[in-house]
Amino acid sequence: MLVLLEYIWLVPLGFVAGVLGSMIGLGGGFVIVPTLTFAGFQPTLAASDSLFAAFCNAVGSTVSYAKQKRIVYSLGIKLALLSIPGTVLGAYISDDISASAFKLLFGIVLVGSSVYIYSRRKMEPKEYNFSKQIMILAAGSSFFAGIISSLFGIGGGTVFVPLMVVAIGLSMKLAAPTSQFILMFAAASGMIVHSLLGHPDYMQAGLLSVGAFAGGIVGSKMSLKVGERKLRIFVTIVLAVTSIKLFMDGLNVHIKTP
């Protein structure tokens, strides 16, 4: 019971991450993983625990978005299946990555995420296109997104949403919900492999998941009401500050290592 109370703060963390992740289609890992890392969690533990939350967040979001009829299932299933091999590889890579390298690489991922979030309004959908050339691009991008998803425990929406909007021509209104549908499969496959490798702490993952599931439902409903501009600015600032802290921590660890 004392151990449970020690980690009860993971529930509100999962909720906040779930709300933000659902609204912008990224999953909640970009909030959870840096927080766990700063709290002293090892990279593999932080990433694997976060994937449980990402899965529950995606389930909650998908259920709500499905009722709003904002998911393109045919496209989502194709991209999800293409991402699964990458999630398996990402889980295995996480076993060999050092804490300093993890922080530096994750900082780069967060910079990319902040650029995406800040510029998402400028993304204009083109005519729907899923030609052979786009299919090849989608296959490579989905595989890469799968690696990122499982290695860092953040989902992969930073790849999927721009891919669907800019390359395939899906509207942002449909891309973010479809991204959550994809992340449900990507997170599940990464979660299974991480579990087989013995990475997660199931109690911590469960607490995060409870909050993330509820946050996913709330976030999908709020996405129709909250002003996107203010949300984009807030999240961009948070990610920028977080990435700077990760770079500083990663470089300090690297400098101290002989």
Account of the protein in words:
- By secondary structure, this protein is mainly α.
- It has one domain.
- Helix content is 79%, strand content 0%.
- The chain contains eleven helices and no strands.
- It has helices at 2-6, 10-24, 29-38, 43-67, 73-93, 99-119, 132-152, 157-168, 172-196, 202-222, 228-256.
- α2 (10-24) crosses α4, α2 (10-24) crosses α10 (202-222) and α4 (43-67) runs parallel beside α10.
- The chain is globular.
- The model is unreliable at 254-258 (pLDDT under 50).
Quickly give the structural class: mainly alpha
Helix content: over 70%
Please describe the biggest sheet, giving its number of strands, its sense, and whether it closes into a barrel: none
The topology string of helices and strands comes to: HHHHHHHHHHH
How many domains comprise the coordinates?
A: 1
Q: Report how far the terminal alpha carbons are from each other.
A: 41 Å
Number of helices: 11
Strand content: under 5%
Mean pLDDT: 84
User: Radius of gyration, rounded?
Assistant: 17 Å
Number of strands: 0
Shape: globular
Spans of at least 5 consecutive residues whose pLDDT stays below 50 are 254-258
What's the structural blueprint in terms of helices and strands?
Elements: H1 2-6, H2 10-24, H3 29-38, H4 43-67, H5 73-93, H6 99-119, H7 132-152, H8 157-168, H9 172-196, H10 202-222, H11 228-256
Helix pairs in contact: 2-3, 2-4, 2-10, 3-4, 4-7, 4-9, 4-10, 5-7, 5-9, 6-11, 7-8, 8-9
